[in-house]
Amino acid sequence: MIGREAAFSVDLETNEIEGALRGRQDLAGDSVNYYRFSRTDSATSNLYDEGTGVGRVFDGPIPLPVMHVTHGEGPSEDRQEGFYYSDSIHFTAGYTMLRRAGLTEMDLNTGSYLKDRLVYDNKVFRVMDIQVLGQIQRRDVVVGVDAVQMKPDELTGDSQFQKWAIIPA
C-alpha cells in the first residue's frame, strides 16, 4: 500500500488524463481554428477599439483539437434595425491544447483571450468566456470555451478575416 501511494503524483495523474483526452479527441473529436490577438502588431483606436492603420492582427490560424463542439444556430431577433441572428459555439478541450495555441494560466486569469477569434463551420466567432471544468490540485486539465458569431460588418477592420467580411447580396 505504501508503494502505491508513493507512485501517485499530480504530474503522473494529469499526464495520464491528458493522454486519454488526446485519445478521445483522436477517436471522436473535432477541431477549431484559433486566432490569438496580437497586441504588439495591432493598431486600434483608443476610444472605440476599432482597427486603425494595420488594424487588428491575429496570430494563426492555430488548429486546435477539441473533444466536442456544440454549434448553436442563433435565434432570430426583431430589432429596430431589422431581423438579426447570431450563432454561438461551445467547445471542450484539454488545457494542454489551449497552451499549445499560446494561452497561459495568466491569460485565463486576466481575460486577455477576450479579443481572440475562432473559425468553425466557415463562421468567425469571438471568444466570450473560458471556464476551467476540471483540475487536479489546482492544475487545469479540462476547459470549456464559449464564443459568439461575428457578423461581416464587424470584421471589416480585420484583414485576416476579409473572406468572411463580405456581406451577401
Description:
By secondary structure, the protein is of the alpha+beta class. The protein has helices spanning 2-7, 10-28, 95-100, 105-110; strands spanning 30-37, 58-66, 68-72, 77-79, 82-84, 88-94, 117-120, 123-136, 139-149. A 7-stranded antiparallel sheet has the order 2-1-7-8-9-6-3. The protein starts with a helix and ends in a 20-residue tail after the last strand.
Write the layout of secondary structure elements.
Layout: H1 2-7, H2 10-28, E1 30-37, E2 58-66, E3 68-72, E4 77-79, E5 82-84, E6 88-94, H3 95-100, H4 105-110, E7 117-120, E8 123-136, E9 139-149
Antiparallel strand pairs: 1-2, 1-7, 3-6, 4-5, 6-9, 7-8, 8-9
Number of helices: 4
Shape descriptor: globular
Which class of secondary structure composition applies to the elements?
alpha+beta
Residues in β-strands, percent: 35-45%
